[in-house]
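thought: fold this chain, then report.
action: predict
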Amino acid sequence: MRIALFTETFLPKVDGIVTRLRHTVEQLQRLGDQVLVFSPEGGLTEYKGAKIHGVTGFPLPLYPELKLALPRPAIGEALEEFCPDLIHVVNPAVLGLAGLYYGKSLKVPLVASYHTHLPQYLQHYGLGMLEGVLWELLKAMHNQAELNLCTSTAMVEVLTAHGIERVSLWQRGVDTESFQPQFATPEMRLHLSQGHPDSPLLLYVGRLSAEKEIDRIKPILEAIPGARLALVGDGPYRPELEKHFAETLTHFVGYLGGRELAAAFASADAFIFPSRTETLGLVLLEAMAAGCPVVAARAGGIPDIVTDGVNGYLFDPTDELGAIVATQRLLDRAEERETLRDNARQEAERWGWPAATRQLQRYYRSVVAAQSFASAA
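observation:
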């Protein structure tokens, strides 16, 4: 099958969406499909055998790490030359409009997927009054697709409630080979704790942006004597967070990748994740695969991954004390913590990328078959 993938973000950017997409592209190519990626220009022209058609863009004012790439005629020319069996638009927004347009004009079946809970992001940037308008725009775009995929049951319910049709679940996936408990190292723990490896070590990995609500980790850190926090990643909110955590034992580590990132997950005592806007929270699965116990908000797609008291702890996102109690319990009960580690790893092992991609292939084939049937009727 020949698949044209339109995405508003791809390599070399690092985030959960890119992680899912790069594994998906690799698996599709390995399984014999051909993929052409349309994304904002990032310097890459190929990934794992898939050609990347980079489109010139400009930085998003509220989020300079993201580029807005505007549709242009060269996209149509490249698409007609590729002759896709199916177009998959990831988070249709600006560049994704080209995928929607050419899907309809070339009569190519369309699949769309929802990965970023944009309507909830608006309130963190002072634009909450636009939430209703954004839902109407999302509905208009997504309802052009023959199938809309979400990465958690919570998001399936949310999209359906807002009038988006033909919604199904795209199962989660994680690289259980790259993230393993045995990758913990004394050197990484020394680095993350800034030379205090015997202190309780809390970890956050991900974008440093307002919607991640990282500032809400501060009361947890301050409530645990001697605890240290390592923030791995970067983003537009870093200057504000550096001010917010200025008087605390917090280390802004910056980006880590590969074995260093795996070691960071495996070397920490607890992974703290306060975000209430996650469609899934792929980074949680990576922490669990590495055997790092999770303390996370009971919100969005997170309860699909974390079972409270079994493979991590969930807290009411409106209850600051609940997050503190959950983290203290995790750190105070060594035997229970080891059980959570084991259970977290077992949960992650259920969700490999090959299985998630085979499921996606079945969705693709069903959409293509349905359109072929409709055309022949």
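thought: worth noting. The mean pLDDT is 92.
final: tokens above.
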